[in-house]
Amino acid sequence: MVVNEITTTPPTVGVNLPNGSSYTFETGSAGSTVPVTFTAATDFGVIDTLTGSLDTTPVTDISITLDGISTPLTTGTSELLISVPGSYTITATATTAYGLAVASTSFTVEESAKPTVTILTPDDSLTVNRFESDPVSQIDFTYASSIAAGTITQIDVTVNGSPFVTTTSGLGSAAVTGIGTLNSSATETFVIVVTATSDRGETAFDQITVNVIESDDPVTNENCTAEIQWLRPITLGKILNAGQKLPIKFKLRCIEDGEYILDDGVVIAINIEPNGDATLYPSGQNPNNETYKITGPMYHKNFRTDRNEAHEYRVEVYRPAAPGSLEYRSLGSKLFRTKLSGKSDKSDKSVKSGISDKSGKSDKSDKSGKSDKSGKSNKPDKSGKSDKSGKSDKSGKSDKSDKSDKWGKSDKSGKSDKSLKTERSSKSSKSDDGRKSNKSGKSNKSSTSVYQACINWWNSWSFGG
Fold it and tell me: How far is CA 392 from the centre of its chain?
């Protein structure tokens, strides 16, 4: 008898789905649906069971719908709803009377999130009001972007459709913040758009509108049109002696309403003409040092001129174009001059001649004094009999010469040397004819010149005082 030996084998099983696949679900949704398909087969007998499991903690049994159970070929299908991102392994098990078979595969589930972005400040449709003279208006805006899963890899900002540079922090993470600044000096509208992009290429954006409205400046003392009113002594136009101190005084008044302006932003600039560097004097409490002082409505600066040289000076007053502005506008200027005392006249000759009004001893200090001595002689002289010549002999004591004595008795007259010539004319008393006596007329003219010179000196002295 022949006996045939038969060797049986266990069934086979496979996981068709998922098979190394990746599944994604949106943040906020129920999760990702993962399809499952198993296949089991056997050459001996039939498939008794076909089951599946998921490697969660604890392990999750998969509910499978079977087709062909108890036959040599069986399939099973199912769907998994997974709401937690991660890597998973699914296992299928098939059994027959002759053994079992196991198969598994891995897959991943990812959460897909769109970024969010919000412009935090300012509010949408913000209106910024400004005046024409205001400094440039700066409008800050801030934004924030975040993502529930993934990272924010890029932020793009546009203003009125053009790229705009902002300061951003946190790029490459799940939370990003940023700030930008708009500058405006006119009426205009800004449309700000901020776009965020995630590492998965998802994008989101936010936008706002900002309006800037510029109005004409209101008329106040701070920004009205100013006019300068120069005060004495600079308005007298006098020439000062070098080294003399000049009180510079003026007032400022609004053209619109006539009110006085008290603005400590005013700057006084003084320079030597034509191209000297200007020295600037700001407001302070002392008009004598490096500042000027405002007393009542008056601006006051005491300026000491150069004592070594004669100059022409320019005084110019500047005022800020608007409160706080770095732009200054000139309100007006004045010129004044200095001279070196004693070097612009002829008084040196008078000094050399020894004639000094202050000395009172001119009779002994010049040749005309000798002429007077001859006048005391009993010897008659023809010119001495002439009235005019007599007056010439007494020219040092003439009425007009007395006026010269009254006007300060100073050699500052600058023209005393003409008087000197007059006294020398007393020598003409030795002449038999009266022709020399006509020179005494020069004494009269000299007295007038001295008188005028004293007047000029007096005005100069009064101005300086």
Answer: 76
Q: In what order do the strands lie in the sheet with 328-339?
A: 239-241, 328-339, 312-320, 267-272, 279-281
pTM attached to this predicted model? 0.43
User: 438 versus 104: which is more confidently predicted?
Assistant: 104
C-alpha closest to that of 75 among 11, 14, 9, 10: 14
Give the Cβ contact number of residue 449 at 10 Å: 18
Establish whether the linkage from the previous residue to 135 is cis, with ω within 30° of 0: no
Residue reference for tokens 């007998």: 45
Name the 3-class secondary structure at 202.
coil
**How far, in Å, CA of 251 to CA of 91, rounded?**
99
Contact 436, 395 (CB under 8 A): no
Residue 272 CB neighbours (<10 A): 17
Q: What share of the chain is helix, strand, coil (3-state, %, to 5)?
A: 20, 45, 35
351 backbone φψ class: left, alpha, beta (φ>0; ψ -120 to 50): alpha
User: What are the pLDDT digits (tens) for 144-168?
Assistant: 999 988 899 999 999 999 999 999 9
Peptide bond into 247 cis (omega under 30): no
CA distances to 75, 172, 235, 249, 388 from 231, in Å: 113, 70, 6, 5, 50
